[in-house]
Amino acid sequence: MIRICLIWVYLFCVSAATAGTTTSSDTLQINALLLKSRLLQRTHQDSSLLLAQEAYRLSKIQDYKKGLSGALIRIGSLLYTEGKYDTALSIVQQALSIRKSIHDTKGAAGACILLSYIYESKGKQDSAFAALYEALRLNSEAKDSINLVQTYITLGNLSADYGEHQAALENYLIALKLSEAMQYSNGISLANDGLGNYYFKNKEFEKARYYFEINDSLFRLVGEVVSTAQNLINLALCNEKLLKYPEAKRYYQEAIEAFTGLGMMNDLSLCYYNLGCMYNTLKQSDSSEYYAHKALPIARQTADLKRVSECYELLAKIYAIKGDYVKAYNYHVQFSELNDSLLNKEKITQIENMRTKYESENKEHQIVLLHEQNNTKSIQRNFFIAGTILFLLLAGAIFMGLVKTAGEKRKTEALLLNILPSEVASELKKTGASVAKQYNHVTVLFTDFVNFTGISEQMSPTELVHEINKNFTAFDAIIEKHGLEKIKTIGDAYLAVCGLPHETPDHAKRVLLAALDLQEYMNMHKSKFQLRIGVHSGPVVAGIVGVKKFAYDIWGDTVNTASRMENHSEAGKINISETTYTLVSDKFKFTPRGKIEAKHKGMIEMYFVESVL
Predict the structure, then answer these.
(1) 20 to 30 A Cα–Cα from 561, which one of 8, 104, 296, 439?
(2) Which residue intervals of the chain bear CATH 3.30.70.1230?
(3) Rounded distance, CA 269 to CA 266, Å?
(4) 555 contacts 540 by C-beta, under 8 angstroms
(5) Residues 196, 82, 149, 251: what is their CA dihedral angle, to the nearest 10 degrees?
(6) Residue 451 per-residue DSSP state
């Protein structure tokens, strides 16, 4: 769904609080700079930042605190939109402190709302809610009904994002009631948008369409071209879910015309992608392919990697249906690689930074030891006669050369077997290449640490790397014990499979036994992390990726579904699909979870594994 951009509406409105009541030419100039900065924020961020920085400089000279806080809000909001959350947080907190010191209650409430967005982006849910409750208190004190409406809507959005659906509904309804009482059209449309999204997520598509249709009338009445266009996507999706495909197509086409005229390429790419998905649902592969290929170059042009990944996945499905398995495979490989990168980029960066620091500390320690060893050897060598040294060195060089050659060969083979299955390693040594193969009966296991980012922030780099290494070393032993093949680790995630390169009739049973051992290990050793596990069975393609730093990997819908099982699991739980359940239903005790919607997979019957029967 498209959520009408409250952040931009909010940033525009909250900055208005910076307008001062003084009439000196200097303060008027500062206020004018802030107004220009605010108007340019969405379209020319560099210019907006320069204007805000100039307003800050002049406000500091004039000791104009309202201007200072307003400039800090502008700078903080710009940094927030660039993803520089830590710096933005510090700057907005300064603005909040200034506004409270000058008793600017309304402005302080606005700063709290912006803080909630930053905290949410940093994954600090409790802090985000606390900031919004403080904004409610301040807005009530200031008797600012408009900001109060915006606060309730933001609370609704935050509650919806964290799955607190009843709280979201209540906040949207309060915002709608307040907005209607004072005929605040912007608040009405934002509340309607929230309610529409709420009912859409809860699969009440008629109700969702009702609220989006009200917004369509409101936006057209006041000439809100951008909001009208974005709301058309919502209407199209509702009609699509209600199986009213002609209406959905009409809304998409109108949205495409609008976004093309406005130059809103991200939204245009979304329209084409949605149409591709809809035609794929209708089994009209040619039309689906056409729109997927319309969406892909735009997504690449705008560097929307998430949309690029989605287009790759859609094209893989389309070509598989059309029987063009080479193209289907190639697009699926591209999707898997990019999707892995997107899902784990932040985690991998964080771990790698900490690992680098840890390794740097170790290298410094090793250098000291090396110097000490060299000094000792130097003293010892002084006791030998020059001729004896030369003889020993010559003999030793010959002997060590032979030993080293054999040792290096053993190390190379051991390393190869450590990263590749033995059959694949043998094939690679013999032919210099390995052909990707399909395995029709395997079970895939995904694990992930719950709240990894939050917990890791409380640990030193050395502690974090040690904890991860300790857990993954234990995981390796458990995986080997049950005959699974470790594929890779991705940040704090661990991927393994059973059923390749040799067929294993009891692959599902082995994976669940391993999963139970993994959870038992985490409980017994009181790890700082809790483990979430997902399992799914089906066919995969396996082979070597790349020619440099090559790696053995697996691809296919089975891998993606196993990942979704992990996403929908819980701390300390093993979540499996119905497919896996049917293979082992008589061997383990389960807790049925019913059908749960998995992203891009629809409704899937899921089960928690409790114990062996």
Answers:
(1) 296
(2) 424-612
(3) 5
(4) yes
(5) -30
(6) T
Q: Rounded to an integer, what distance in angstroms lies between the CA atom of residue 213 and that of residue 186?
A: 15
Residues 6+ apart with CB under 8 A from 430: none
Tokens describing residue 511: 């994976």
Residue 534 pairs with which residues in a beta bridge? 446, 575
From the list 452, 233, 209, the residue with the least C-alpha distance to 350 is 452
For 533, the token pair is 């596990």
Mean pLDDT of 304-314: 89
> For 1-143, which CATH class?
mainly alpha
Q: How far is Cα 264 from Cα 261, in angstroms, rounded to an integer?
A: 8
Residue 296 has pLDDT above 90, yes or no: yes
362 is written with which tokens? 């170790």
Tokens matching residue 334: 């591209």
The residues that bridge with 595 in the sheet, in sequence order, are 605
Q: Return the CATH architecture of domain 424-612.
A: 2-Layer Sandwich (3.30)
Summarize pLDDT for 39-65 with one digit per residue, the tens: 777 667 788 888 888 888 888 888 899
Which letter does DSSP use for residue 379 in this model?
A: H
Query: Which residues make up the CATH 1.25.40.10 domain(s) of the chain?
Result: 1-143
**pLDDT tens-digit series, residues 280-289:** 999 999 999 9
Q: Report pLDDT for 278.
A: 95
The residue with tokens 């709280």 is: 167
Sign of CA dihedral 335, 337, 341, 347: positive
Candidate from 175-179, 193-197, 232-236, 421-425 with smallest mean pLDDT: 421-425
Q: Which helix (H) or strand (E) holds 609?
A: strand 602-612
Q: What HEC string does 455-509 produce?
A: HHCCCCHHHHHHHHHHHHHHHHHHHHHCCCEEEEEECCEEEEEECCCCCCCCHHH
What is the pTM assigned to this prediction? 0.51
- Predicted local confidence at residue 289, as pLDDT: 94
Decide if pLDDT at 266 tops 50: yes
CA 356, 362, 365, 366 dihedral sign is negative
Tokens of 561: 């579904």
Q: Is the pLDDT of residue 403 over 70?
A: no
Cα angle: 606, vertex 592, 590; to 5 degrees: 100
pLDDT of residue 19: 42
